[in-house]
Amino acid sequence: MSPKTTAVIIVAAGKGERAGSVEDATPKQYRVVDGQAVLSRTVTAFLSVETISSVLVVIHPDHVDRYAALELAHDRLMPSVAGGPTRQLSVLEGLKVLAPQRPDRVLIHDAARPFVTRHLIGRVIAGLDGYDGALPTLAVTDTIKRSLDGTEIAKTEDRRQLFAAQTPQGFRFGQIFSAHMRATNVRREFTDDAEIAEWAGLRVSMVEGERDNIKITHPEDFQRAERILMSGEGFETRIGTGYDVHPFAEGDAVWLCGVKIPHSAKLQGHSDADVALHALTDAILGAIGEGDIGTHFPPSDMQWKGAASTVFLRHAGKLVEERGARIVNLDVTIVAEAPRIAAHVPAMCAVIAETLGITADRVAVKATTNEKLGFIGREEGIVSMASASVEVPRSR
């Protein structure tokens, strides 16, 4: 029996006007939090789960250029689709696009919940066992009052029976697609997909939600999002190190940190022999437990002969993104008697930052000599060492 497939619809078709401000009218899903757009964080979180078969983002028709500017790319990320005038109709558009794939399950998630974790995603999928749908919830802790006119209290609710709903909400695909199609004939707007499932007579289970799985709705929610990121909750920091050495050969320039520097020799290697980027790539791969550069780009493979080492570095950065992780800082040390690199350091940091999609202040490049000792002192080659600090979703 083939494994069950799980598709994801990320609803990003709203204009996010309530979360805007006088200073920044950017729709909330495209606002940047700690260097990354909200929608990018949300998409990356789902792509980091290997059991997700495909991810579809439903966007506002006016946001095509904004979405393209995020430069999201992955073999499991489908081309975006334009949504409708309401959330309910936007979800239906997504379901229609997924229908030819006939996935077994579908998770429907709000783009404005960027802190969804792989653990919560797993609980929702597991909650579908024996049920038609699964809904993450949090127990209501405040006392809830009901009022008919907003002025006078009419009743106190029993909070033991009240739960706040979150997303992603999971369903068996055929059943929720059918329910959504039928719901288009009902003259009222449903508040979420679980309500449509209830209306259609489907059985929906509840699984434990997460406090940090907030929905960014108002301007102050961005401040809360920053606090969540600063607290590091849900993440752990891992350190990777890299070391590489290349001998000199006849030539007129060396590649170091993606910058070509004139010299009386070149570095010998299968690719462009950028010893610094090789060490840095190994450091990043080590931080996320992904082996070394030779595992991903074997020197025996002729397609990498003469290749720019930024290709290797970019690959390592993509693996970090796919795990929902983030690079904290990178540190590179180059050990050589020559050439002198001090004047090239700003350009080196800029190349690394651009290749990985991070800010240059997270990158440090330093150089030192070997005090004329050993093969480095004899100017027979160059050594580079690197370290990478990466925050990854915390394992349980």
Describe what you observe in this structure.
The protein is α/β, with parallel strands linked by helices. It has two domains: 6-231, Spore Coat Polysaccharide Biosynthesis Protein SpsA, Chain A; 235-393, 2-Layer Sandwich (60s Ribosomal Protein L30, Chain: A), CATH 3.30.1330.50. The chain has twelve helices and 19 strands. Strands 1, 4, 5, 6, 7, 10, 11 and 12 form an eight-stranded mixed sheet that branches. The chain is elongated, with a radius of gyration of 25 Å. The model has no long low-confidence stretch (mean pLDDT 91).
User: How many strands, what sense, and barrel or not for the largest sheet?
Assistant: 8 strands, mixed
Determine the CATH superfamily of the largest domain: Spore Coat Polysaccharide Biosynthesis Protein SpsA, Chain A
Low-confidence stretches: none
Helix content: 25-40%
CATH class category name of the largest domain: Alpha Beta
Shape: elongated
**Rg from C-alpha positions?**
25 Å
Number of helices: 12
Q: State the secondary-structure class.
A: alpha/beta
Overall average residue pLDDT: 91
CATH topology of the largest domain: Spore Coat Polysaccharide Biosynthesis Protein SpsA, Chain A
CATH architecture of the largest domain: Alpha-Beta Complex
- Count of individual domains: 2
Tell me the fraction of residues in β-strands, as a range.
Answer: 25-35%
Number of strands: 19
